[in-house]
């Protein structure tokens, strides 16, 4: 697959990319912070009130047409979810971070309290004992220079996606 670097004012390449997307039955996409800058989110930042961009909706349309093999994202802004695309590797309600408004607290710069720690401390106080320290929670995201603990799961998904023989990989 040839690699083509395209600038926004390069109409010839943009037209060829549009033609490629129109004629390709199986597409894999990978996005990073650049996809969200048009939503008003500065690079490497998150924003809770941002709206999905045309690119987010375009990728969802590929999915709805049955042509998207997988959409990989490095973003934690949840804009994919706002257009109805799940990006969570895990299943089930126990894996939802946003219980108790944790997203809003985290996005506003406040760290949410550990509910289990708070419950233990409150139980101690109501029984006449001293309060214990209540820790804060950190979202399950990979920060700079950290290893992703889900690397094996991600690798298995990548291998599965490759076995489906995608026709195009868009970065």
From TrEMBL:
PANTHER family: NAD-DEPENDENT HISTONE DEACETYLASE HST3, NAD-DEPENDENT PROTEIN DEACYLASE SIRTUIN-5, MITOCHONDRIAL-RELATED. It comes from Colletotrichum plurivorum. GO terms for cellular component: nucleus. Residues 89-110 are annotated as: Disordered. Transmembrane segments: none annotated. Residues 7-171 form the Deacetylase sirtuin-type domain. This is Deacetylase sirtuin-type domain-containing protein. Residues 89-108 have a biased composition (Basic and acidic residues). It holds the Pfam family SIR2. The keyword Transferase applies. Belongs to the sirtuin family. Class I subfamily.
């Amino acid at each position: 697959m040839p690699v083509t670097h395209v600038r926004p004012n390069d109409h010839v390449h943009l037209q060829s990319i549009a033609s490629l997307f129109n004629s390709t039955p199986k597409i894999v996409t990978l996005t990073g912070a650049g996809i969200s800058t048009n939503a008003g989110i500065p690079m490497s930042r998150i924003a809770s009130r941002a709206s999905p961009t045309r690119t987010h909706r375009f990728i969802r349309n590929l999915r709805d047409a049955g042509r998207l093999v997988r959409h990989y994202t490095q973003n934690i802004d949840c804009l994919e979810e706002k257009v109805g695309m799940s990006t969570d590797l895990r299943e089930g309600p126990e894996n939802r971070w946003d219980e108790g408004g944790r997203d809003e607290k985290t996005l506003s710069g406040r760290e949410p309290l550990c509910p289990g720690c708070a419950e233990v401390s409150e139980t101690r106080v109501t029984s006449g004992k001293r309060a214990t320290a209540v820790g804060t929670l950190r979202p399950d995201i990979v920060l700079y220079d950290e290893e992703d603990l889900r690397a094996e799961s991600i690798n298995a998904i990548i291998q599965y996606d490759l076995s489906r023989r995608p026709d195009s990989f868009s970065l």
